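Before relying on records like the one below, remember that each one covers exactly one chain. Contacts with other chains, cofactors or solvent are not represented anywhere in the record.
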Amino acid sequence: MKSALGADFLSSYDIIISGEAIYMKTYEEIRNCFNAIKNNIITCNELDSDMFNYRTYPEWLAVYKKRSMGIREIYKKNTEMVEIINEYLKKDLNDEELLAFYQGYRELEDRNLHDSYLIISIIDKLIPPYEARHDYEKLLHLYTDSCYELGCFLRLDDKSLERLKKDLHRIKNLRFHYKELSSIRERRLIYVAYYNLIKTLPEYSPKYNEDIIPMFKEAKAFYQTEDIKLMGDQEFARHEGNLLNIMLLHSFMYYLDDGLSQQMEYTDLIDEIKDTFEDEMDTDLCNAVLNYFHDQMNDEEFVYYLKNYLGFYFGEANSLTFNESFDEIFVKAENLFNTAFMFYDFLCHSYLSEEDRKRESVFVTEAIASFLKRIPQDKYNIYFDEAASTLIRKAAPFIKTISEKERLLGDILVKNQPNNYIHAKMVEKLSLGILDYLNRANDLLLNQFYQIGFNNYNELRDYVARGARLHDLGKSLSTGLITQQIRSLTPYEYSYVKMHPEKGLSVVGKDKEFAPYFDIMIGHHKDYDGKNGYPLSFDNTKSKYKIVIDLIRIADAIDAGTDVYGRNYSTGKNFDMILAELVKGEGVKYNPYLVEFIKNHSDLLNELRYATIDGRYELIYNSYLKQER
């Protein structure tokens, strides 16, 4: 294995020199690995951003191919750097190596260059030795960065949520070492931990609702301690206390228990804090919430306050140039999203007419959609995916037709992710190409499609087209973690990729209008015979829609296999090589009747061959530059 310095990885241990020289060599090697990863990620972001600059089609295509080759080379180099880092993480680290790892990963964090699995692995390695050293400043950053990566970029299953809760408690418990934290920037992280315990954790799971009030009271008591006075932070703590009041207000709107005692405790607390707001907007909203709760304000008046509140945060979010730190972007975006979610939750329970509720929901949806479209690709991550997914679920009750709902999915979620959008459009194009040829040939195989229950060919065609567009919806929830990754995936990350069928259902799974597409979304990675593929729990052989699943599986395989320039991890193959793989997999992986039909019709083969080369490039060009998205 070669190191970042070009020497054999273990060479520094093969030559007996002074301990200081060995330390320096290993320190430099580790830092060089991190510098290489940092510079490579920056280069990738620049190459991706350049794809949106207008050029003629031939000029753009040349840049696209050059970009692909550059990113593919970076993919190999970053994989090598991560292998070197992982070798170090397997051994006991000396002080110099610990420092090199701490400085290296922190520089990635400070530049908003996130490689979550790598960073979490490093943090897990660094926490025990720094806990043993009682290095509270470093521990504060380690705990905080762990929360950040978990909350914004990694899968939050039950195990990860408990890890997030543990890290937040470890941060807030550093309040007992408040005087040992040198800068107000670091001490502020303790306050932020309380915000997340009061507001963020309950957003992920209702089992954390019971912690809201105890954590709020603990935080308010902490803000009055002598340590804060000794550090001269009274004014800062007072301001942070006002922000905490706003956090409680948001939690009140989202997570209020129906029990009377819980309601009374929330109400008493909000009555107690309502006069502490300095910001007129927050004072108005606090009073509006109280008045509405006490039946002193009708639905129309409350909508007025919520719209003002949303407009205020929309203005703040729209003022972003996206050259700001991710922290600043995150705060303004979160305020906008949370207010929008509050608005939707209110509309669901309001007594407004159906027409009025739909009108107000459109106002909210358009505000969020316009903000999401402004986010540059290098700033777009899994946090925005999750926020968009939540928005879709909350907006769905106010949208009546499936066409409008699909348009919402496209505008807010899929179209902000070029790779996922292009793949969905390619699978649609290939599926319809095969289906149309079946129809023109009046092939008996078409009868299997009609047996699903379609009245005419247009109905069937529309169904296949929408199924193709929706099949990979779940990948839209893993963009920041997977599709933008510029190194080989870890087993953990690949297991996340394999969850995308279930992830797609998490977005639309409660909407009955999408029910006819559930089997396509969940089953498009199952083999024809049902014995392999994922998820294992789904039996595609018993699906009413199996013939459509088979068609989309073939179209999916053709697009993925022939994508010569769009996938960092693969150089792709030509269409005839993929056709040979389809034939080889007949009856096991792929529907043998569909494969035989494709193989035996030369005109169809030519259509598909064109679609995977020039047709693909034209689609990508339009997607990036001609605003088809």
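The chain is about 70% helix and 0% strand.
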